[in-house]
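INFO  loader      accepted 1 record
INFO  loader      residues=284
INFO  predictor   begin
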Amino acid sequence: MRWSSGMFLSRPIAITFDSSSPLVSAEISDWAIASSRLRGFRMLSLFTIMRRKPAFVGLARGEVTLTFDDGPNMEDNVTPRLLDVLHQHRVKAGFCLVGNQIRRHPEIVRRMFQSGHLLINHTQNHVHPIRQKYPEMLADVEACDREIGRVLHIGGYRSQFFRAPYGIVTRAVRKVTRTLNLTPVLLTHYAWDTRVGPHNFQSVVDRTLQNALQHQGGMYVLHDGSLTTLQQHDTDWQRSTENRSWVPDAVDTLIRELKAHSLRFVVPGESQQETPAAQQRAAS
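INFO  predictor   done
INFO  writer      dumping tokens
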């Protein structure tokens, strides 16, 4: 998922309703995603993976879920270093994997799996959902599962969890999740980490900590992966938003601070709020 220049058609969307039509217009608005008003989040929840409170994503009070999108990424050794940090703190996380990246770095995916992290289908090609109809979306999700199964040597592998690219939920996305019995992996806060680089990432750490402490938990995302090729990189790599080298250090700080405030880390399926049936499905 890349919540930057394409997530909401480049900017967030506010939905307008009236009595004659359930959906009259989609007005592009810069303030929609930033607004914490209940009405704004209710509208966002109709077509994105954003939810306002931890309880709305299946988390109990005091629980935090860390997720990482668009990987794995070997540039600057980002994903291996991130796995080192998680291992050091004994924290399990969810990795939203792109099939094309899995193909490039199968050994990292095997390490994630063997370390007990949750592998989440993030499609094969990370195409914006608005550009795909149901057959294309279904094929993209199934192709990602084949890549995961291939590197894990598990025939007929089927993901249990799915996150839509760009966090956008379309009719096709909903139909695919129903068809494949996938559980969507949601978010309670987005810190705009795709808009920062090594020189200014502290703002992402600060916003995430503030939100987690305010709500006593939440489901969060950072991007360990970058889907931009080397030839497309900015000339000043140390200031590039595609440079994800800072992510392991940010995660180290987040975990230390959140543990210091007695918050605990879970992956989807482990929350104390989950029903026994949901926990059994996640463990199977």
